[in-house]
């Protein structure tokens, strides 16, 4: 049997490949440079143009650009009315920001478990965690696959809860032929470089509600308004603006907006290539019983952000740690998504015990995300498959 690189053998890949990477072309660079040569550097015409474009991409009536995906979640949570004493139900299998936004508002995150096969929040678990104090649900489209939006929306309707969909992974995904962004009360996006399209840093909130939209605009810029209808002391003085609540500076710059507009020109291409790679992985791993693959639900036409493999410990002699390290040594730089949020020491100190969500905890211990990004060549894809099969063969029971 071929010696693993971790034990001194030759690595499958000569150069490392990471689990995600941005793709920037000359058009992107030109778009940014053009803004830098213009008059408006921040929150100007490019941001407005981008908001219109994202309305088309997401099917939402309104989109507000902000400085990053975390700011988008924060403002969505504020506009959802989350405040001290409120409970908000959230998945633990996510980046911490999905729950932190609840803490920012003084609310209490309540973790509902995920389904063991789809990795998305389980509507039944949401139902079982509802109390008098529950105000909202934060649902994450993990890896880009849409959560069970019909079921979750029904629960929210019955209990008068706001639904925030964290779609940081899911730009371009459709649920039952409706675009993600047009369905929940708020849908948030992130444009960090590792996501499907990037602004360097950037975020967006999509909503169909005009009132909430105006609130989001105001919160993005200090809680200050120029609209006399929103003022306590309205005047027609041209210079007058008024802070009517406590907001933030979460504005996006125009050069970031220009970058994202240029990236969105490539979104269909990006998704098509990612879909091809996913198909190739699915095919290659179908013959590996040691790997469990994420179940795809037919309701979601998924624009895939992550490809997660799950180890079947009954058929392997290694731990997840050993498998991860072996792949790393083969120059396949995998990553783990995610540490259950309440396992972070900060949440532990807040009093969340281990064992709250057994499925999320099990998944955390057995999954890793393998390389998936637009600019991977077919050779890259095959090398990842070869490396995984090599490590599987070594540790097969
Ligand atoms: C990336 C991400 C965020 C945070 O987005 P930033 O733009 O990095 O602030 C939030 N939720 C999920 C699920 C993410 O993947």
Summarize the model shown:
This protein has 397 residues and is of the alpha/beta class.
Word description of this protein:
With 397 residues, the protein is an alpha/beta fold. 37% of the residues lie in helices and 15% in strands. The chain is built from 13 helices and 17 strands. A seven-stranded mixed β-sheet has the order 2-10-9-6-5-3-4, sandwiched between helices. Strands 8-7-14 form a three-stranded antiparallel β-sheet, with no helix packed on it. It has a three-stranded antiparallel β-sheet with strand order 13-15-17. Helix 4 links the parallel strand 3 and strand 4. Helix 1 packs antiparallel against helix 8, helix 2 runs parallel beside helix 8 and helix 3 crosses helix 4. It is globular, with a radius of gyration of 22 Å. The two termini are 14 Å apart. It binds pyridoxal-5'-phosphate (PLP). Its EC number is 2.6.1.92. It holds the Pfam family DegT_DnrJ_EryC1. Belongs to the DegT/DnrJ/EryC1 family. It is an enzyme of class 2 (transferase). One of its GO terms (biological process) is polysaccharide biosynthetic process.
């Amino acid at each position: 049997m071929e010696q693993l690189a971790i034990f001194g053998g030759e690595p499958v890949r000569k150069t490392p490949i990471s689990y995600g990477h941005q793709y920037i072309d000359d058009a992107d660079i030109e778009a940014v440079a053009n803004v830098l040569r213009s008059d408006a550097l921040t929150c100007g015409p490019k941001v407005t143009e981008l908001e219109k474009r994202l309305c088309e991409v997401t099917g939402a009536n309104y989109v507000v650009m902000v400085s990053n995906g975390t700011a988008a979640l924060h403002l969505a949570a504020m506009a959802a009315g989350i405040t001290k004493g409120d409970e908000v139900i959230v998945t633990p299998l996510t980046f911490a920001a999905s729950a932190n936004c609840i803490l920012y508002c003084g609310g209490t995150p309540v973790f509902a478990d995920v389904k063991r096969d789809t990795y998305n929040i389980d509507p039944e678990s949401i139902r079982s965690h509802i109390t008098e104090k529950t105000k909202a649900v934060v649902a994450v489209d993990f890896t880009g696959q849409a959560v069970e939006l019909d079921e979750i929306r029904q629960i929210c309707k019955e209990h008068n809860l706001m639904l925030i969909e964290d779609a940081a992974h899911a730009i371009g995904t459709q649920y039952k032929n409706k675009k993600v962004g047009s369905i929940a009360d708020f849908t948030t996006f992130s444009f960090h470089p590792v996501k499907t399209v990037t602004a360097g840093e950037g975020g967006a909130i999509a909503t169909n509600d005009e009132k909430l939209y105006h609130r989001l605009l105001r919160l993005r810029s200090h809680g200050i308004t120029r609209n006399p209808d929103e003022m306590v002391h309205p005047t027609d003085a041209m210079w007058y603006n008024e802070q009517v609540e406590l907001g933030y500076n979460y504005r996006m710059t125009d050069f970031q907006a220009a970058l994202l507009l240029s990236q969105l020109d490539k979104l269909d291409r990006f998704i098509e290539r990612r879909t091809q790679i996913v198909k190739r992985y699915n095919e290659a791993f179908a013959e590996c019983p040691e790997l469990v693959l994420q179940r795809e639900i037919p309701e979601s036409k998924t624009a895939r952000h992550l490809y997660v493999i799950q180890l079947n410990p009954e058929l392997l002699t290694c731990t997840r740690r050993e498998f991860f390290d072996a792949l790393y040594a083969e120059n396949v730089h995998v990553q783990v998504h995610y540490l259950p949020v309440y396992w972070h020491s900060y949440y532990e100190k807040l009093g969340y015990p281990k064992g709250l969500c057994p499925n999320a905890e099990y998944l955390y211990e057995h999954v890793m995300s393998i390389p998936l990004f637009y600019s991977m060549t077919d050779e890259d894809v095959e090398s990842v498959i070869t490396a995984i099969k090599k490590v599987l063969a070594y540790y097969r029971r």
